[in-house]
Amino acid sequence: MIFLWLKVFHIISVVAWMAGLLVYPRYKIHQLKDEPGGLLFETMKDSAILLRKIILTPAMMGTWIFGLGMVASNPAIIGVGGGFWFPIKLFLVIVLTGFHGWFTATGRKIDAQTAGTDAKRLRLLNEVPFILLIVITILVVIKPF
After folding, report:
1. Which of 29, 65, 77, 125 fits a 20 to 30 Å CA distance from 100?
2. What is the pLDDT of residues 19-34, one digit of tens each?
3. Cβ neighbours for 42, distance < 8 A, ≥ 6 positions apart
């Protein structure tokens, strides 16, 4: 029964994390459209900080904690389907965590007006977490390897 509760909270955390990863860069894109100190700049800055602190980072941590908890409570899930899907999934989640770190670090640089990126690059990279979600979901449900 504990495994199922861990799974529920893992799924909830993943949904919240993905929502945050898709919205956070958009806030920063809008922020870059205004001059530092302007109304839009400050509104997006404040909104992004709240999103990061209340949803994005706690959801990432929950995803990892509940996911590792599922593995600890039932190590057999790593080998379910007898394939190589789990290490690939784990690698992609690590990549997703890297994107989380890059987005938040870039966001802080935008807030401090020391960003080395532009809105076009953020728009392009904003699609990567969704693509990773699609591949990870296929790996978990279909277990193709």
Report:
1. 77
2. 999 999 999 999 998 8
3. none
Cα distances from 67 to residues 46, 76, 88, 107, in angstroms, run 30, 13, 15, 27
The pTM for the full model equals 0.91
Decide if 29 contacts 95 (C-beta within 8 A).
no
Amino acid identity of 39? L
* Alpha-carbon span 47 to 56, nearest angstrom: 12
Phi then psi dihedrals of residue 36, to 5 deg:
-55, 135
